[in-house]
Design brief:
- It is built from 14 helices and 5 strands.
- The strands form 2 sheets. The protein has a 3-stranded parallel β-sheet, sandwiched between helices.
- It has 2 domains: 3-187 and 303-331, Rossmann fold, CATH 3.40.50.620; 206-297, Tyrosyl-Transfer RNA Synthetase (Orthogonal Bundle).
- The protein has 333 residues and is mostly helical.
- The radius of gyration is 21 Å and the shape is globular.
- The structure holds adenosine monophosphate (AMP) and tryptophan.
- The site of adenosine monophosphate has 15 residues, from helix 1.
Length: 333
Amino acid sequence: MEKKIFSGVQPTGNLHLGNYLGAIKNFVKLNNNKENKCVFCVVDLHAITVSQDPKELKNNIRETVATFIASGIDPKKSIIFNQSQVSAHSEAAWILSCIARMGWLNRMTQFKEKAGKDKEKASIGLYSYPILMAADILLYDSTHVPVGDDQKQHLELCRDIAQKFNNDFKVDDFFKVPEPLIQKEFSRIMSLKDGLKKMSKSELSDLSRINLTDDKDQIINKIKKAKTDPLPLPTTIDDLDKRPEAKNLIGIYASLTDSTLEKSIKEFSGKNFLEFKENLSQVLVDKIIPITVEIKKLLNEKKYLDTILLEGSKKADKIASEKVKKIHEIVGF
Ligand code: AMP
Ligand code: TRP
């Protein structure tokens, strides 16, 4: 069966190893499978749910496209575009916000985390963000959505919205109910400074993450300084569960070498962290630096990047505006 793939990444700068291993690496695999139709969206409308500097936003949009391409997504095979250029996303988001229920949104843990203690000061956009995400996905009749573990709850909400719309308007199967594609292992890469916290763009300390724009020395230095514990490397998976930092670093190694946690534990069992970290740095440099170099090269080719976005948005608009037309008919406009 042909799979229709959709995913989005926010252009908020500092794309990091978590984005790469949790999401983008998977996009590349899906893009390379001839049976898939893929749409990858730079979700700039989502980015402005928190305040953005307009100049930086523009650069970050290009940087996200450059990262997609440098990682191996082929713009000839997949549609790459930025969300703000296809007005159907905003239109559909409004209509779907009349379908989604407050009670559903009130359960979203990402909003609670991002809004922090002062919920009253969060933007309405930050609150309704998952509805826009549902619009993104549903407009393309997407069947599969590759994301990191942190987006699972938003995907469930998207499924609820699709089903409620289909039921309310008695249009069976109008919106396809999408499946999340979340990797079994390595779906959540943790901070290099705290094995219980997600690696994140917004973490203050740059030492907590490997950015996809870091150079070789930065990568080596960050791995050297990554938090560990005083014991030698574990010998079993059970051992690993009690040691979050070790688990994260071995997970990163396993994911980069297309291996499994189990095999990687065997490779390093009982060895000290110094030796393991040297191996990990080497693998990171081998895999990440070619991407970094390509991103930097592409960032000098602004016209090329802008053309990809323009061409992508034309193709996306064709699909999405057709779907919005049908939504209008169903709703009674
Ligand atoms: P964002 O940068 O928040 O738009 O996220 C883009 C993609 O990267 C989403 O699919 C996220 O689930 C994924 N992602 C972000 N941070 C991590 C992480 N620390 N580990 C795994 N996946 C992540
Ligand atoms: N909310 C996602 C994130 O922060 C980004 C996103 C927006 C997305 N729209 C999407 C992901 C549609 C998958 C499908 O990571």
